Amino acid sequence: MNINLTLFAQMIAFAAFVWFCMKYVWPPIVNALAERKTKIAEGLAAAERGHQEKALGEQRALELMKEAKVTAAEIVGQAQKRATEIVEEAKTDARTEGDRLVLAAQAEIERETNRAREELRERVAALAMAAAEKILQKEINLDAHRSLVNDFAKQL
Amino acid sequence: MAASETLTSQGYIQHHLTNLTLGVHPEHGFGFAHSSAEAAEMGFWAINVDTMFFSILLGVLFIIFFRGVAEKVTAGVPGAAQNFVEWIVDFVEENVRGSFTAKNPLVGPLALTIFAWVFLMNLMDLIPVDLIPYLFGQLLAVFGADPHHVFLRVVPTTDPNATFGMALMVFFMVLYYSVKMKGVGGFVGELTLQPFGKWGMPANLLLEGISLLSKPLSLALRLFGNMYAGEMIFILIALLYGGGVVLNLTGGLLQFVWAVFHILIITLQAFIFMVLTIVYLDMAHQEHH
C-alpha cells in the first residue's frame, strides 16, 4: 500500500505496452477493418450494378423473344402459302395430264377405228370381187367389166 | 479461509492488503518484507513484486493475443479470435472517434491498451480471493518460508502504484500535447487568463491548476478506490467461511452475488479510465479561445 519504486516500473511497463500496441497491434487490425469496409462497399455497388444489368438483360431477352415470335409466325405463314400453292399446282398438273391422256386415247381410238374400217372395206371389196367373180365367172369377162367392179368397190 | 486458524480477522485482512515487497530494510537488509510495517520502513526504494508480476503477465497476455491476431489479420472472412479482437478494437475506435476530435495515431492504441490491460487486471478480482495467495504461501513453505509472512496481492489495480503509474503517464501526455498543440505561451495562457481575464490571474491559476492536477488524481483514485473496495468486500465475505453450515452457505451466496455485480464494475472502471483518457487528451489538443 506504499507508493514506491513500483510506480516508476508501472509507468515504464505501461509505456512499453502502449508503444508495442501502437507499433504492431493497432495499425494492422484497423487497416484490415478499413479494407473490409471498402470491400463491402465495392461488393454492394457491384451487386447493385449486377441488378441493373440483369434487368436490362431481361428486357433484351423479352424483346428478342417477341421478335422471334413474329419471325416464326411469318415463316409459318409463308410455308402455309407455299404448301397451298404446291397443292394447287399439283392439281392443275394432274388435270392437264389427265386431259392429255384422254385426248391421246381418243386419238388412238380414232386411228384404230379408221384402220379397221379401211381394212374392212378392202376385205369387203375383195369378198365382193371374189363373190362376183364366182357368180359371173362363166358369163362375164373380167376385163370387160373391171371398171364397173372398181366403181362399186369405191362406193363401199 | 485464512492461511491459518490462529489468525485473527484483523490479521487476515491485513495479510490480504499487504504487497509482496522487495527492498532494502534499514535493519534486516535486502529481502522481502515480513510485515506491512517492514514494507513501509523500506521507503521508496522498494518494489511490489506481486503487482509487477501480475500486471506485466496480463499485459504480455494481452499483447501476445492481440499481436497473434494482428499478424494473421485478414480483410476477408475473420476467424473466431479475429472476430473477438475486431469487436474490441471497433468498440475502442468508436469511442475514440466519438470523443477525440483531433488527429493523433497514438490515441487509439493508447485507449485500447488501457481498456484491455485495466480490464484484465481488474478481472483478477474474480478469482477466489484466497486461492492464489494460499497456493503461493504453500509453495514457498516448501522452500522453508513461513506462509504467514508470504504476502501476495493478485489484483494489480488495488495497488495505487499501478493506477497512479498509468494516470501519471496520461497526465504527462496531456502536458506534452498541450504544449505541442498550443505552445508554451498558449498553455500558460490557458492556465492563467481564464475564466476571469488577465486581472484575475492568481484566481485563474488556482482554479485551472486544481482542475489540471485533479485529472490524474481522480483517474488513479477512482480506479484504485473501486477495486480496493471491491476486494475488501470479497475479503469480508471470505471471513464468513469456516463459521458453520449457515455462514458458509451465506458466504457462498454473497460471494457469488458480489462477483456477478463485480463483473459490471471491472468492465465499467476499465471503460471509464479509457474514456476519460481520451477526453483529457482531446482537451489537450483543443485550442481554447
From TrEMBL, chain A:
Gene3D superfamilies: F1F0 ATP synthase subunit B, membrane domain. Belongs to the ATPase B chain family. Its main location: membrane. GO terms for cellular component: endomembrane system; plasma membrane; proton-transporting ATP synthase complex. It comes from Thiobaca trueperi. The keyword Transmembrane helix applies. F-type ATPases have 2 components, F(1) - the catalytic core - and F(0) - the membrane proton channel. F(1) has five subunits: alpha(3), beta(3), gamma(1), delta(1), epsilon(1). F(0) has four main subunits: a(1), b(2) and c(10-14). The alpha and beta chains form an alternating ring which encloses part of the gamma chain. F(1) is attached to F(0) by a central stalk formed by the gamma and epsilon chains, while a peripheral stalk is formed by the delta and b chains. F-type ATPases have 2 components, F(1) - the catalytic core - and F(0) - the membrane proton channel. F(1) has five subunits: alpha(3), beta(3), gamma(1), delta(1), epsilon(1). F(0) has three main subunits: a(1), b(2) and c(10-14). The alpha and beta chains form an alternating ring which encloses part of the gamma chain. F(1) is attached to F(0) by a central stalk formed by the gamma and epsilon chains, while a peripheral stalk is formed by the delta and b chains. InterPro entries: ATP_synth_B-like_membr_sf (IPR028987), ATP_synth_b/b'su_bac/chlpt (IPR002146), ATP_synth_F0_bsu_bac (IPR005864), ATP_synthase_B_chain (IPR050059). Component of the F(0) channel, it forms part of the peripheral stalk, linking F(1) to F(0). The b'-subunit is a diverged and duplicated form of b found in plants and photosynthetic bacteria. This is ATP synthase subunit b. NCBIfam families: ATP_synt_b (TIGR01144), PRK05759.1-2 (NF004411). GO terms for molecular function: proton-transporting ATP synthase activity, rotational mechanism; proton-transporting ATPase activity, rotational mechanism. Keywords: ATP synthesis, Cell inner membrane, Cell membrane, CF(0), Hydrogen ion transport, Ion transport, Membrane, Transmembrane, Transmembrane helix, Transport. It is a single-pass membrane protein. It is found in: Cell membrane; Endomembrane system. PANTHER family: ATP SYNTHASE SUBUNIT B, ATP SYNTHASE SUBUNIT B', CHLOROPLASTIC. The chain crosses the membrane at residues 6-26. SUPFAM superfamilies: F1F0 ATP synthase subunit B, membrane domain (SSF81573).
Automatic annotation (TrEMBL), chain B:
It is found in: Cell membrane; Membrane. Keywords: ATP synthesis, Cell membrane, CF(0), Hydrogen ion transport, Ion transport, Membrane, Transmembrane, Transmembrane helix, Transport. The keyword rRNA-binding does not apply. GO terms for cellular component: plasma membrane; proton-transporting ATP synthase complex. GO terms for biological process: proton motive force-driven plasma membrane ATP synthesis. The chain crosses the membrane at residues 44-66, 106-124, 162-179, 233-250, 256-281. It comes from the Bacteria. GO terms for molecular function: proton-transporting ATP synthase activity, rotational mechanism. It is a multi-pass membrane protein. Pfam families: ATP-synt_A (PF00119). The keyword Membrane applies. Key component of the proton channel; it plays a direct role in the translocation of protons across the membrane. PANTHER family: ATP SYNTHASE SUBUNIT A, CHLOROPLASTIC. HAMAP family: ATP_synth_a_bact. Belongs to the ATPase A chain family. This is ATP synthase subunit a. It comes from Thiobaca trueperi.
